[in-house]
Structure formats: C-alpha cells, structure tokens
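Weekly structure sync, notes
Attendees: PL, DS, HV (note-taker this week)

Item 1: Cytochrome ubiquinol oxidase subunit I
DS walked through the input record. Source organism listed as Novosphingobium cyanobacteriorum. Sequence as pasted into the shared doc:
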Amino acid sequence: MANGIDPHSAALLLARLQFAFTVSFHFIFPAFSIGLASYLAVLEALWLKTGKALYLDLFRYWLKIFSVAFAMGVVSGLVMSYQFGTNWSVFSDKAGGVIGPLMAYEVLTAFFLEAGFLGVMLFGMGRVGKGLHFAATLMVAVGTFISAFWILSVNSWMQTPTGYEIAPDGRLLPGPSWLAIIFNPSFPYRLVHTVIAAYLTTALAVGAVAAWHLLRGSTNAHARKMFSMAMWMAAVVAPIQIVAGDAHGLNTLEHQPAKVMAMEGHYQSHADGAPLYLFGVPDDKAQKLDYAIAIPKASSLILKHDPDAPLAGLDRVAPDKRPPVAVLFWSFRIMVGLGFLMAGLGLWSLWARWRGRLYDAPWLHRLAVAMGPSGFIAVIAGWVTTEVGRQPYTVYGLLTTAESRSPIAAPAVATSLVAFVLVYSAVFGVGIWYLLKLMASPPHPHESGPERAPIRTAGITPAPQHVEGAAA
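Item 1 (cont.): predicted structure, written out as tokens:
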C-alpha cells in the first residue's frame, strides 16, 4: 500500500469504471436499434398494405438512421468482449462454462440472422421483390430481439444463478438442464422490462424529431404521422412499462432483497410498515437517510401489498455484502421519475388528440423534444440500478467482483481507460453528431434511402454494360 491507496482496490475500481464506461456507450445503441428495427417493420408493412408513399418515405428516412446506429452498436459491443479476457479473466475462467455458450448462441442466432438480412434490408429495395424485402426487414427486427434475449439471459443468470454445478476447482459449470440456466428466475421480468424500454426509447426519439420539425413550422404529413405514431406508443406502452417495472421489482425483492433495500433507502428495518422515501440524501457511513421526504407505510404497501407489513433493512445485511446506497437510491429515482414523465407525455397527447390539437400544441411539442433523450437516460439509469445493486458480486452470491478481476496493475488499467475515453469521445461523438444531423432534416416525399450498395466486390471487374445503339 502506497500513500494510503491499496493498489488492488485501485485496479478493481478502474476496471469497473472502464467496463461501466464502455457498456454505457454500447447500451444506448441496441436500446435504439431494437425499437427502431420494429418501427421500420411496421412502416414497411403499412406501405405494403395501404400503398401510401408516405410510409415508404418514413421507412427510408429512418432506415438511414438505423444503419448508422446499428453499426455503432456493433462496433461498441466488440470492445466489451475483449475486456472479459483482459480486465476480467478470472471471471471468464470461473463462469465461462455457463456464460460462454450463452454468448455464443447470441452470435450463432441473432448476429448471423441480422448479418444475413441486413444488406437486403439496406440496399435491396427495388432489387428484390417487395415480399422478400419485407421478410428481410422482419428478420432484422427478429434478430435484434433474439440478441436481447440471449444477452439478457446471461445478465439475468449473473443476477439469479440457477442450474449450475460447482466443480472441485471452484469453476461454475452448467448442470443437466440448460433451460434452468436460460430461464432463470429474473430473466422473464428483465426481458420484458428491457425490451419495452427499448420500444419507449425509440418512440420518444421519433416523437422528439417529429415535434422538433412541427415547432419549426413544418406542416408536411410526414412529421405529423411520425408524431402521431410516437405518441400512440408512449400513451399505450408507458403505463404497461410501469406495471412491468413493478413486477420486476417484486421479483428483485424475492431474490436480491439487499438491492431493493438500497433502492428504497431503507438502512433500518421497519417492523410495522416501511415508508416510501421520495427524496433524501443517503449517508452510507452513518447508515441513514438525511433530509428524507417520505410517505408513511407506502413502501410496504407497494412491495408487500400491505401497509403494515414488516420490511427488513440493510441493518440485517453484513456490512461487506451491502451495495452502495447513494448510487442506487438516485439511479432508481431517475429511472422511475422519467417513466412517470413518459406516461404523462402520453396522457397529454391523448388529451390533445381528443381535442383535435395534436399538431397544434406547441407546449406538448416542446415537452416531446425535451423528452427525446429521456429513454436513453432511463435505460442507463436502469442498468446502473441493476448492476451496482448486484455488488459486491459479479455472479450473485457465488463470485465477488474483487475475485473476478485480472491480476493487472492499476496503471495499465488506467492507461486503457484513458484511451477508451479519448477514442470513444472522438469516434462516437462524430457518429452521434451525424445521427443528429440526419434527424435535423425532415423527411420529404420521394425520400432517398441509404447510399447505393457496391456494384462489385474487390477484385472482380464487372463486364461492360451494353448500351442500345452504341457503336460496335
């Protein structure tokens, strides 16, 4: 130990920060592309059904944005895989027997499906039949969902591990049933909650783009149709997400009670009904919540459906097994607060639609623009709540985070972290700027799609094209 700093603790903290930084960047792109792929499938289906060129224009407009977001998601995801072998090699060794095959299934199913049909989706319009092109769009949308399925199964198993066996050397190996591993207790709740979050993220982004153009005086039917579709999604899905989130929270209380205690700010146990703390300042050292604003017994009512039900607090958890309350307390409130704002936006849009003022409500449009990034913020806050709440474990109850890291010195981890920050800020900063530039232009009639596909592959020269009437 030098200068009062434990080098092992410093290396662990830096490795966690590096993974948190890269996965946060990565998470926002799949959260957008999952919902956007389904939105594109809906737009193409409506075009095929109605024959209205407006839906085709919107499809081509968002297809360009999808292609960039999808590529950024793939690139940012590749980096994360390498970190399992650099910063977290012990975790890979201990849990690789379970984690490895699940991640391989994601590649063999979702990635191959997406890669096989993405080119047809992006460049096949006019080159293949309408039915085949629509099938390709559907396959890409299905592929994004399958990708979420496997990745969330991996993450859920790390939260609620089941179906494993412990080898004599301490490694975690799959038991006789892979179904017990894949469909672990928290997986269905996490899958529903996360996929709905992706749809809401996309709806709010689409709604913000449409509202932006409406505020700038656009009267074309494209912006109006985008805004109408996005607000329908917010109005219908946001309340469903609140219900799904509540069910997910009850499941978490059953399997990871310490996480819920930290989310709720319950440092102390309550024998006759626990309050719901709306706000406060967590003090982990003193194990108390300062300046608390609470609703008496409301937490017991929500979590136990009985206002007088007892709820245990972190005083029942060993100090070295407690997650950090301050981070969880605020990340959870950011996520929940934004969820209720999304539902409020949807309700406001229903009121404006009923009054016939959906396209002539500037304050509604301003709120929709302000809420544009809220889906991305909410999914990051939800991820922080999920992952920080699992601490001090990587595999809950079986493998701690401190035991999972590679024996790499802190300076080496710090160097790679700085490199990631610089490269990501440059590369993805430009990518996000380009996405915003695409969104700043409204969709128009006869909207063009992505750039043309290459007319030849490397090393193959196409034959000269015969032109009618050319000289021999």
